Amino acid sequence: MDDLDEMLSQQQQYYRERARDYDAWINNYLLPAEKKFEELVNSSPLTGDILEMACGSGYWTERISRVAHHVTALDGSQEMLDIVDGRQLPNVSTAQADLFNWNPPTQWDGIFFANWLAHVPDARFEQFWRTVSAALLPTGTVVIMDVAPAEKFIEEEVVDDSSLPIARRRLKDGRRFDIVKKYWEPEELLDRISPLGFTGKATPVGQEAGRGFVWYELEKRNEF
Ligand SMILES: C[S@@+](CC[C@H](N)C(=O)[O-])C[C@H]1O[C@@H](n2cnc3c(N)ncnc32)[C@H](O)[C@@H]1O
């Protein structure tokens, strides 16, 4: 296992260990933009059979399931998926998957992921987008929610002077984990994914509250 594999495995362990507290945390974290997010989900193209990657405790799964025909929600952490299953959403199925080692068994009308792309290191970025492309019907849409640099205030310590930006996180019991965390500027992200076959627009969310959430809606232009 190389250093990056080791860090990605730590990243998974960090979220497994955090699962029990995560749902309350994410609800509180997203609260300032909750109404806007509801509007964006309701007017989004996430209406057919939707794949949600890295669903966590299901904050978004629940909201998307209200507009989608069906949601397939994947996460690396069974502890997170147990919380999603506990929501008893009739049109949602869950499965455990390591998204860096997952082959899509089918293609979906739409793909959604929130607070996930920031955790994809540059060295796995193209491979990850190949997976997204393979999982999406040619007419499909990718919707992303992620964080711009204005959200860095949540970090106790960041090391971002390299091609592998790292956040040093601490659990309540004091254990420390290094995780990948890239706070993309929206234009920088759109430029990065354009050669990978995806184009679209970025909508800032929560700016009036000093927050840096970004909502992206993307189309697949071509296979790469
Ligand atoms: C910041 S949370 C985001 C959860 C959810 N999307 C949200 O916005 O609340 C990141 C999620 O990625 C999952 N994760 C981390 N590494 C993963 C991997 N290699 N494959 C699949 N999921 C992974 C974690 O278990 C965690 O649920």
TrEMBL record:
CDD domains: AdoMet_MTases. It comes from the Bacteria. The keyword Nucleotide-binding does not apply. GO terms for molecular function: methyltransferase activity. Keywords: Methyltransferase, Transferase. GO terms for biological process: methylation. Residues 50-140 form the Methyltransferase domain. InterPro entries: Methyltransf_25, SAM-dependent_MTases_sf. The keyword Iron-sulfur does not apply. This is Class I SAM-dependent methyltransferase. It comes from Saccharopolyspora endophytica.
